[in-house]
């Protein structure tokens, strides 16, 4: 049996890979990545004595980070959050067995909001996103279903994600405006 490491040792070992993990999940918003990283480390520090060594340190911290990311979206989705398109890549990749009932509920809530915004897309974009991200079809399979080359499908998916991001940004602006209006009333 290996001697247990101190939190400081684990912090040094896991900081860089954990930051990369969080950055991959959240995209290029460095301030948000830093905030989630700090919240993750604080939660890990507070829970250090309760760590049961059933997984590797990094695995444990990545799970905490995923919970903190979910917390972020849960807190901000009701305040007109910008739901970034990269999250669509991960919505169905989370295994239900990995989630607590509360996490499963919030993941479903986010998915439903994304789907509602997707309904505002042209059918062509809506269909390629659903085939790619909810049915997990390859570009080749999508091309065989709707016609066209794999390259054209990649382009459609790129444009569909950009359009969805624009719709989500508009949704956020409307939510923020509605919130400000209700406060002023």
Automatic annotation (TrEMBL):
Residues 112-164 form the RNA polymerase sigma factor 70 region 4 type domain. Residues 16-76 form the RNA polymerase sigma-70 region domain. CDD domains: Sigma70_r4 (cd06171). GO terms for molecular function: DNA binding; sigma factor activity. This is Sigma-70 family RNA polymerase sigma factor. InterPro entries: RNA_pol_sigma-70-like, RNA_pol_sigma-70_dom, RNA_pol_sigma70_r2, RNA_pol_sigma70_r4_t2, RNA_pol_sigma_r2, RNA_pol_sigma_r3/r4-like, WH-like_DNA-bd_sf. Keywords: Sigma factor, Transcription, Transcription regulation. It comes from the Bacteria. GO terms for biological process: DNA-templated transcription initiation. Gene3D superfamilies: 1.10.1740.10, Winged helix-like DNA-binding domain superfamily/Winged helix DNA-binding domain (1.10.10.10). Pfam families: Sigma70_r2, Sigma70_r4_2. Belongs to the sigma-70 factor family. ECF subfamily.
